Amino acid sequence: MPNKIVLFLTAIIIAPWANSEPLGLPPLPVPADNPQTPEKIALGAKLFNDRRFSTTGEIACAHCHAPDKAFTDLKKVSEGINALTGTRNAPTVINAAYYKSQFWDGREPSLERQSMQPLLNPVEMALPNHDPVLQIARTDPDYQKAFQAVFGKSGDGITMNEVSKAIAAFERTLISGDSPFDRYHFGGEKNAMTPAQVRGFSLFLNEGRCVSCHTIEQDHALFTDHRFHNIGIGINQIQDQVPGLALSFLQAKARGVDVDKAVLSDKKTSELGRFAVTSLLDELGSFKTPTLRNVAVTPPYMHDGSLQTLREVMVHYNNGGVNQKGERVNAHLSGGIRPLNLTDAQIDDLVAFMEALTSPQFAQVAAVAPSPTAPVEKKP
Ligand code: HEC
Ligand code: HEC
User: Fold this and answer.
1) Cα–Cα distances in Å, from 10 out to 2, 7, 291?
2) How many angstroms separate the alpha carbon of residue 1 from the centre of ligand 2?
3) What pLDDT tens digit does each residue of the chain (380 aa) get?
């Protein structure tokens, strides 16, 4: 998509949030050393959309976090330069500002740190180092003006510190609440959710046990506990290889392997999950609980994009997370899930509830997103 259109879409999406906190969200966490300013946000938007920050000149952050696709790419796993595929599904950047850690395995602690990685990852933007970014930021006349105005810096004074701060400031504007659920639960609008959604909400809190990880607080809901759990995606299929994989990854780490590159370039290493970051055995196969906000417009699902519809997600939970042979193999690991024995009608209600978590700005994404309930076409 041409950059101009991306910027335009970004502008109309940001505009309604400029002044008020959306219903259902907590106060925005902003680091003391990176306050939000309109100029910094505009600079961050330009950086986020700049395709020159890749070896092929084609891949911007927005390539995989596209404004017209609810800031994801709607692909099973992302495609970077030369259509190289990674191992993981691109999470939406909407509301990432609230996460206590970034990435499915939480390997970066902040938005500021996160943006350093995709620029260098060989299957994403694939730069050899950050120099090409700085070269452009220091010489492009628009950037020169903007970095001077925002940070009072020019030439060598512009470093990745300023670049990543501006990108993070832009990402902190990509927040969204005000969903039918928010209006119902926090706004007291009893008709904001349909009867099926209201039944699904009750299942979410009770029989489904969803809320124990996808948390709802007194006055806001991020639908995540910010923790890591193994719910039997991916790792269940390679259970017998896990000890060997874990051992060889520990050895690779001792040799100084780059975790970001390793997990995004090798599918089996990716399945080690949080273990790859912490080396803790009980975090094998554990991934961060993702928010469920806008989940209906951000298929496919899970860290590996292996489940295509919300119904498939529900079947996975209902069965207690079985592998292809129908065995429950993750039960001894932390956070494992147990079968729910919900009826078909109850599953429908839970799917309906998740559809009530779409913010109005992203309702139009349903038009481009494959239907969250019907099966989508499989890629060959
Ligand atoms: C080639 C596609 C691609 C590009 C380009 C890309 N990303 Fe991502 N992004 C991903 C994938 C895939 C993940 C998940 C990786 C993981 O968790 O290991 C991700 C994760 C993230 C996250 C973490 C969100 C969360 O829920 O934890 C943020 C924030 C983010 N990207 C922002 C950016 C920014 C900023 C840029 C540009 C500097 C960028 N991305 C470039 C695909 C991409
Ligand atoms: C033990 C904690 C836990 C419980 C209980 C739980 N989840 Fe999850 N959920 C997770 C984790 C962790 C993931 C990501 C797993 C992965 O990718 O490997 C996830 C992923 C999801 C996703 C995919 C989101 C995305 O963007 O890809 C949906 C949808 C979801 N859960 C809905 C539910 C529902 C509905 C329930 C109740 C029936 C539920 N969850 C119960 C922890 C939990």
Assistant:
1) 13, 5, 21
2) 32
3) 445 554 545 544 444 444 468 999 999 999 999 999 999 999 999 999 999 999 999 999 999 999 999 999 999 999 999 999 999 999 999 999 999 999 999 999 999 999 999 999 999 999 999 999 999 999 999 999 999 999 999 999 999 999 999 999 999 999 999 999 999 999 999 999 999 999 999 999 999 999 999 999 999 999 999 999 999 898 888 888 999 999 999 999 999 999 999 999 999 999 999 999 999 999 999 999 999 999 999 999 999 999 999 999 999 999 887 655 666 555 444 346 888 999 999 999 999 999 999 999 998 876 566 665 544 444 43
Structure-token pair, residue 334: 């932390």
CA–CA separation, 98 and 354 (whole Å): 19
Distance 290 CA to ligand 2 centre (A): 7
Ligand 1 atom 3: residue of nearest CA: 64
Q: How many of the other CB atoms lie within 10 Å of CB of 217?
A: 9
